[in-house]
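Standup, Tuesday
Yesterday: got the pipeline producing structure tokens again.
Today: sanity-check two examples.
Blockers: none.

Example 1:
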Amino acid sequence: MREYYITKNDSGQRLNKFLEKAVPRLSGGMMHKYLRLKRIKLNGKRTEAACRLAEGDRVQLYINDEYFEQVREEEAFRRIKTPRLTVVYEDENILLADKAPGMVVHADEKGDSDTLIAHIQAYLYQSGAWNPDDAASFAPALCNRIDRNTGGIVIAAKTAEALRILNDKIKEHELKKKYLCVVLGRPSPPKGRIENFLRRDEKRKQVTLHDRPVPGAKTAKTLYRTLASTKELSLVECVLLTGRTHQIRAHMASIGCPLLGDGKYGRGDRNRACGETGQLLYSYELTFAFESDAGALQYLDGRTFRVRRIDFVQKYFPDFRF
């Protein structure tokens, strides 16, 4: 018999999700069979796969030892000796990281394992805030993601409960994000709203914009305002009212002001002249604006967090302060 004691990190998730990670060799079919046979119990009693776990619960498994025998490849975070991580904010439930442009958040199709989540896990592991051997199921996880060449705030949940709450709040648009970008030219008008329909082309990894609904397209809405301008460039703040792929990049290009450095929607000649190989776009501000109870994260309601420095702002608009 194996017994798992549910810690705060593991609480709030369904039993089946816990078992998928704690006992990866146990198939879904066998799990349901053993639940029916009462060979998997919760606090000594019969339970269901959908049961939500609470801190202090005990999960007992009366199953063969073969399900616990496993040889795992070394996790990516264990190979990181010095985490590259800028922490904007951290408490017992969440961590806000300032992702540098050029870093991927998760392993991509190229198999890059030098990821933001790996560095976050390494940081928490080395600081003693997270011990994967004590929490058999839950590992710190990202709640949102941004493109490789976009920088800015990414949210990591340190507990299963925090991940569940934040996923719900993001889905309900109760987290507000602001972006800064450097664009070519001057937007006209300097402040406005862009609204149309955006369709993603999976093969080309690019999006197209349409004035009318077309098959596969979704509504895309962006608010923008110009903060500063030079003869050739403008610093623009954007607020996403919808969160579509490449939305800011495509929308600013649609009004004749593509992002500097953007290889998909921008101007290659201007990018090369300035030596920019990635879009100058940063998710610089995050506000928790809960419209309903957030449970264990209610204390975050109304709080706003910003990054301290953006290199491309200092480079092209050194006198600007935000």
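Example 2:
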Amino acid sequence: MTDQEIITLIEERREHKALVKLYRYESRVSTLIKKYGGSKEDAQDVFQDALLILCKNVWAGDFKLTSKLDTYLYGVCFNLWRTALKSKKGKEINLPDEYRLEDQNELEALIAKEGKIKQVEEVLKKLGDPCLKLLQLFYYQAKKIKEIMQEMKYKTENTVKVQKYKCIERAKKMIAKV
């Protein structure tokens, strides 16, 4: 379903069908809110508020979508959470530079980057258990080759290194196809 079809459903007051499609963006918002000290419940509240804002803006009759719909929702959620934090703390929030967005293009680029990260995550899941476990141990848990050898019951450290290389090459090929 395209962004415009979703907007049309909301305009026609058939928003339930549209909202079901829009909930696929909730996990991104949850990640954002948690990054800035919020809880899962905070993220759900912010996302629901953003959906209400979207519906009200569409129903007002003069809504023009100038970006992707997920970009719009992410921006609304970002601003809602920043406002909520500001009112809680009573002061301006200093965001790290990588989260300061000067214009709509930066927000779209950020969302595109997140999309690519999701694609890589999906590819890693498709690699299968031995490769996925090996890469997680090495990159995410920062375990040494010797520790991986013992944990995964490989015979030598070289075997771990070769297997890691093969897994990375397989992942690169799968990512190139995406």
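Quick observation on example 2: The CA atoms of residues 7 and 58 lie 7 Å apart. The first helix runs from residue 3 to 11.
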